[in-house]
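Hi V.,

Quick status before I head out on leave. The structure for the redesign project is tokenized and pasted below; the design run finished overnight.
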């Protein structure tokens, strides 16, 4: 046995014997062994984890999930119950002429070469299969589970991409997840020096198995070991129509990100956005009525805006029922190379908010996000070296939240209240039923929460469309393209938070697999039937979640899981 392997085995042995092990106590164990063997440089956790996985595979050690969590890097990546995989598309033209978007040759518009997702995509030739395999491998070697995956397709304006490319890219994603575990057995070696961009060699002669059609790939993923529980795309509000949503559903897409940027039409026009509130409102309604989750993008500090106008815009987004998205991303505008804004700034016609103004503004914006909305991001992942003018505070969210904490101001958005790795007893959870008007329909936000601190264990979004609430046939066009939705209430999201558990694995103290989802579905069915007399309910389920609904009496109709009530 190699000397280094012997040292790692000793670390693993002592770590497994330690009662109630923590990161701190394990760090102490490692330091004692390093001192014993005169090691000057500590061993990376991924090297210890790789050896531990080998010992498990050889039957020399039993799998201990608590110990694996201690070894896991970037724990936050799977504490929302799923693993998020971001994939970048190739460069294609965009119909927008937004002044702030950088335009680099060979990259989708608005993306910068030094962004991590871009670097990973370039290393893999923008191939969806290689990007997925690379990301899954890097997550796996750092201790994350990869059975439940939320895919986010980023790049240019998805709806403007050639339809043939769209279908090939989507099919490639499904093929990648379906083939990963088989491919893994043919890995010859993995470079552990940079786990973020884990590279590995495949044994000669192995070819990745691909399905013949997209539909075949989707069916395979229903029972694949690595499943896709949802897919998100980015597009423009003015490109959303009934034919587009039918196409999106055929791909298995469940969430759509659209850029409102601001609710002040004059400012959007000044920034050459190419659409206004009319298109944003219409797109939001169409998407919700088809069951999609809607993620809005909002940009403070646009050309012509002020902090006061930014606050007015944010207020409109949540107080006007024609907007009210499910999630929001706030991206303060900055000047980058290769954008029209660069010239405007160089001519002295644009000035970004200073850091103090931006921090104070973000404090106000974050506290305006209601409890039924998830605030995903508050800063774009752009390296400071690429920002010519504007804030370079990459830890803006942390600064803002620390300031709010000192001022005793509470944040109530979903992300802030998720269970994550907090030790809350799920037995204390109570059902909360919130309702609000949105996009001419009625939304129910059902959640199981700890009444002591409002920590969320699980949530469900139920929509009662306007056709059921009001007379008239406003959504006839919708029912022409998606007839399976006629007369149905819609479950648009169901999500149980906490550390990701494998499919079929028993529940823990954090939230997953202890029955919250089943109870929320039953409550949604009860509200639909008893309050509105609805006889059918439909779920916009990701392909990899279909089996879950089949066990609960649902069946596949079109691209939705449905049930007669």
């Amino acid at each position: 046995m190699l000397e280094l392997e012997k040292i790692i085995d000793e670390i693993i042995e002592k770590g497994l014997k330690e009662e109630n092990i923590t990161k701190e106590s394990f760090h102490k164990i490692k330091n004692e062994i390093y001192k014993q063997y005169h090691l000057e440089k500590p061993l990376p956790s991924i090297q210890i984890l790789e050896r531990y996985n080998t010992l498990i595979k050889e039957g020399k050690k039993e799998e201990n999930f608590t110990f694996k969590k201690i070894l896991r890097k970037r724990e936050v990546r799977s504490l929302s119950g799923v693993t998020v995989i971001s994939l970048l598309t190739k460069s294609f033209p965009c119909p927008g002429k937004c002044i702030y978007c950088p335009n680099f040759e060979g990259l989708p518009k608005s993306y910068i070469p030094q962004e991590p997702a871009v670097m990973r995509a370039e290393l893999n030739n923008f191939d969806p299969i290689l990007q997925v395999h690379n990301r899954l491998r890097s997550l796996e070697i750092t201790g994350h589970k990869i059975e439940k995956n939320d895919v986010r397709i980023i790049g240019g304006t998805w709806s403007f991409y050639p339809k043939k490319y769209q279908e090939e890219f989507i099919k490639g994603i499904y093929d990648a997840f379906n083939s990963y575990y088989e491919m893994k057995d043919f890995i010859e070696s993995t470079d552990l020096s940079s786990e973020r961009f884990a590279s590995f060699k495949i044994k000669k002669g192995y070819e990745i198995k691909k399905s013949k059609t997209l539909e075949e790939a989707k069916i395979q993923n229903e029972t694949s070991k690595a499943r896709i529980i949802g897919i998100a795309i980015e597009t423009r509000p003015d490109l959303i129509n009934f034919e587009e949503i039918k196409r999106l559903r055929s791909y298995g897409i469940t969430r759509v990100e659209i850029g409102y940027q601001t609710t002040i039409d004059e400012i959007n026009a000044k920034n050459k956005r190419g659409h206004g509130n009319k298109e944003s409102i219409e797109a939001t309604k169409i998407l919700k009525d088809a069951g999609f989750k809607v993620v809005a993008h909002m940009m403070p500090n646009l050309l012509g805006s002020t902090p006061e106008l930014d606050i007015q815009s944010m207020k409109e987004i949540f107080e006007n029922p024609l907007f009210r998205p499910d999630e929001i991303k706030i991206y303060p505008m900055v000047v980058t190379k290769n954008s029209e804004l660069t010239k405007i700034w160089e001519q002295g016609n644009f000035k970004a908010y200073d850091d103090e103004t931006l921090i104070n503004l973000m404090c106000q914006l974050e506290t305006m996000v209601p409890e039924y909305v998830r605030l995903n991001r508050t800063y774009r992942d752009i390296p400071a070296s690429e920002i010519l003018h504007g804030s370079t505070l990459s830890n803006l969210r942390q600064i803002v939240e620390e300031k709010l904490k000192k001022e005793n101001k509470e944040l109530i958005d979903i992300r802030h209240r998720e269970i994550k790795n907090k030790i809350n007893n799920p037995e204390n959870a109570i059902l909360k039923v919130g309702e609000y008007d949105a996009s001419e329909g009625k939304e129910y936000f059902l959640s199981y929460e700890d009444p002591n601190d409002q920590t969320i264990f699980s949530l469900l979004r139920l929509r009662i469309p306007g056709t059921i609430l009001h007379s008239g046939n406003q959504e006839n066009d919708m029912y022409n393209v998606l007839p399976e939705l006629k007369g149905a209430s819609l479950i648009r999201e169901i999500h149980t938070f906490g550390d990701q558990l494998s499919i079929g694995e028993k529940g823990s103290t954090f939230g997953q697999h202890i029955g919250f989802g089943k109870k929320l579905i039953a409550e949604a069915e009860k509200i639909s039937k008893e309050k509105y007399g609805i006889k059918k309910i439909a779920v916009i389920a990701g392909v990899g979640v279909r089996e879950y609904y089949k066990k609960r009496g649902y069946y596949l109709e079109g691209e939705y899981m449905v049930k007669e009530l």
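Above is the designed sequence. The mean pLDDT is 89.

G. will cover questions while I'm gone.

Best,
W.
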